[in-house]
Each structure stands twice: as structure tokens, then as C-alpha cells.
Amino acid sequence: MKRAKYYCILLVLILQWCYSSATCPQIATRKDWDGLRPVHVSYLPRPVALVIIQHTVTPTCKTDAECAERVRNIQSYHMESLNYWDIGPSFLIGGNGKVYEGPGWLHVGAHTYGYNSKSIGISFIGNFNNDEPTSKALDAAKALIKCGVENGHLASNYHVVGHRQLIATESPGRKLYNEIRRWSDWLDDVTSIKN
């Protein structure tokens, strides 16, 4: 009887692990995209309850090589021209549907002044005033957010907002903004969270 109970518990743990892992998208690590190490890190208190969607205002990318190059270029600009410690967004998402690691779940990013230490910033690669986000990119963002909740990085009652709702910017671009406004976790009225 004890052995059967042990195997049942083991099976439940395995199934939980498989379910949790299945929803997490593949994340291209800093090593995968040949990123520089950050100059300094500050740890993000978790779980956070806010996800800020933005865009990079760069050309889009559709292949792994193109997207990795865009991420490297963004990191170089952020670190060399803006003197950031690292690339700003927590994660970036390419038109190829791949997620690229920035500061990630654990470290404070530099994506939205006044909100960096209490949010995750997800930046879609492209200019979404002009371009439509790909379904692969949108699905990757949703899977990343779900993964964040399941792994305790995001609070279960988190909200998604557009960059433009918090600061004076066009980001995440009109077409991407129209998309994310239909998400179930969308927060329309940001007065309760606005600095």
C-alpha cells in the first residue's frame, strides 16, 4: 500500500512538471543570441502583477538569424548609447515566434521609467504602427505570460497594459495595441497603478 501511494505521488508530480513545462515557450538564452553579460543586475521582487507590452520600433524579423541580430543591435544601443546595464526589455519576441531573454524573470529591466522594479516588459520586435504582429509572436507572448504565472514569476491576478498607457509614447504601436486590448488579462483603466 505504501509503495502504491508513493508511485501515485510520483506520477502526480511528473504530470504537474510536464503540464507546467508544456506551456512554457522555448526561450532563446543570452548565449543563444550571443548577448553581452549585463554590467550590473538588480533583483526583481516576485511575483509581479504587471506585464507591459511594447515594441522596438525597428524592422521586423522572421528568421532566427535576423531576430538574433536585431536583439544584439538593440542591446548594443541600450548599453553603449543609453548607458543601460543591459538590454532594456525583460523579454523580446520576434516575428518568428521565438522569445529572446533579456533581464528575464529575475532581474529588473529598463523598459518603462517608474515601473521597471514592479513589472515585466515584453517587447515585440518591429514597428507595429506599420506592421501586423504575427500570430506566432502573439501566441509566444501568451505562452510566456502563462509560463510566468505557473512558475510564480507573475501573480495570478496580473494585468497586461500597453506601454502608451503609462508614459507618453506610441508604443506598442497601434496595430499591436489593438490586439492586446482584446486579451482577457487586459487592464483598460490604469489609474489604480499609474505613478
TrEMBL record:
Record bears the keyword Disulfide bond: yes
This protein's record includes keyword Disulfide bond: yes
Keywords: Disulfide bond, Immunity, Innate immunity, Signal
Stretches assigned to the N-acetylmuramoyl-L-alanine amidase domain: 36-173
Top-level taxonomic group: Eukaryota
Biological process annotations from GO: innate immune response; peptidoglycan catabolic process
Pfam family, any one: Amidase_2
A GO molecular-function annotation: N-acetylmuramoyl-L-alanine amidase activity
Peptidoglycan recognition protein family domain: residues covered: 25-167
Signal peptide: 1-22
PANTHER family associated with the record: PEPTIDOGLYCAN RECOGNITION PROTEIN, PEPTIDOGLYCAN-RECOGNITION PROTEIN SA
Family under the similarity heading: Belongs to the N-acetylmuramoyl-L-alanine amidase 2 family.
Subunit comment: Monomer.
Name of the molecule in the record: Peptidoglycan-recognition protein
Protein source organism: Parnassius apollo (Apollo butterfly)
